[in-house]
Amino acid sequence: MRYLTDRKRAEGRGAAHSGTADHWYMTVSAVALAFMTPAFIYVMGSAIGTSHEEVLATFSRPFPAILAGLYLVVAMQHFRRGAAMMISDYSQGITRKALTIGAISISYAVIAAGVFALARIAL
Amino acid sequence: MADANRVDRPLSPHLQIYRPQLTSVTSILTRITGNGLIITAFLVVWWLLAAATGADSFATADAVLTSWFGDLCLAASTWALWYHFLAGLRHLYWDAGKGLEIHTAEKLGVAVIAGAFVLSILTFLVV
Lengths: 123, 127
Description:
The structure holds 2 protein chains of 2 kinds. By secondary structure, chain A is mainly α. Helices cover 80% and strands 0% of the residues of chain A.
């Protein structure tokens, strides 16, 4: 038996302290990624294996460059939350915190490196 | 007071002694493919960074990605990405409150695995 009133049980944003914000972000990014994935696979699949000049020419064009940049940012934000979900399922305490911070750092590092590379090629 | 009788709660069956089912295996695969794809992200971003840096570094990255091992990694990544793509669509369908009956969920599991193979083969043919 829980000594909580109905109101107390419904108040606040739950054990996650952020309500369903994370789940909603995963839904939104999943839809965005679902639209971009076929085009992203086509662009990357076509570019990998070509010569250096051809790769530079491909990512100098607006569509492949914008798509690759957008995909990287959204995919890494999606990864960050998915990885945090896995980490909080399998670890606790300081390990969980350290791994979560690591996953967030990795996702931003991948975004920074990828966007820098695309900007340097395209501009 | 809320956790006074916590010890009396029944334990759920432990994962290791639970018979694998299509629904549970496809769910675990969604997690493995999603998190594993970070390796692909590293490879692709490294390759892009090398292309942006110069001819020498591009030659190194390109040699790795187009080697037999690179091909194997990218082929596995393609399957993993398509699998995660289809499993994600399945999640969106479930989130809408549809397809949760056991026989439908199992059919969706088969569709996700088979679909990933079909889309991967199509990808290898097109690009």
